[in-house]
Amino acid sequence: MPDDAVSGQPRELLVALLTTMTRIMVADQRIRDGIARGELLASYWPCAGQEAVAAGVGAALAPTDWMVTTYRGLHDQLAKGVPLEPILAEMAGRATGCCGGKGGTMHVTDPEHGLMLSTGIVGAGIPVAVGLALAARTRGEDRVVTVSFGDGAVNTGAFHEGVNLAAVWELPVVLVCQNNGYGEMTPIEHVQRVTRVSDRVAGYGIPGVTVDGNDPLAVHAAAAEAVARARAGGGPTLVECVTYRLWGHYFGDPMAYIPPEQLEAARANHPVTSFRARLVAAGVLDEAAADAVDAEAAAEVEGAWRGAMEAAAASPGSALTDVYAGA
Q1: Which one of 28, 125, 230, 316 counts the least CB within 10 Å of its CB?
Q2: 8 Å CB contact between 177 and 150
């Protein structure tokens, strides 16, 4: 049966989505391997399983748009266009990192590429994104701000205060809830009475939509519509992307709270391999071309890894630079 969703899209977009998803998957795996081997001493929050969300949203943004993400943000950062080597260098505390090696895995920031903040506090990025959107509009800049957060964040006060202000002021914000089913170790059904996160913004008078977060085309369509609406002055939209976290809350999490059969089923339907198979079945790529995408991602990630790990460590004295001083 023809895949109408694939056949209706430009080949350039389809290949770009697969390429981004593959880069994310390989980079995430390399970081986990590096930590397991003792090559990288860092805490890490894997994004495996959520590649389609980042790729779909990232493809809907202009280079000049801004993004706010979380500590589980590698996929968002790469999809926004941040180069991999400075991200890895930041995680490793190298001077060549995005923040000079002072941010670590939680606080990767790169304003040059529109990545304004990766926050380590659940829900805290939402009011920051609202402030960025207000600043952009006040300055008359043509920017849309996206903010990613997990399902656990929608129960914080920051979410509700931020969404309310964005709605009242009709700010150019796209709220991207990456609903992976677990707030740390707690299933979403234990902390939320409604089925859909998107239903919760009806009270603020803004649109909310729920899409399959494992389908990059569904995510891209919803994100593109929300971005266009925000850019045209229509205000914020919440896009809930229902996905699954294929590893624990943090790397090393024993995941005893996740039913094994649930995890096994999710891993068997990995969004990257599933989308790759769709493109091959639809004739967008043949197997050789798809293998080339894999090989290119592997080479890029390994090169970035070597470059980052061989760079000089941040000097202790740099801790006193790039900070605010008293008036």
Answers
A1: 316
A2: yes
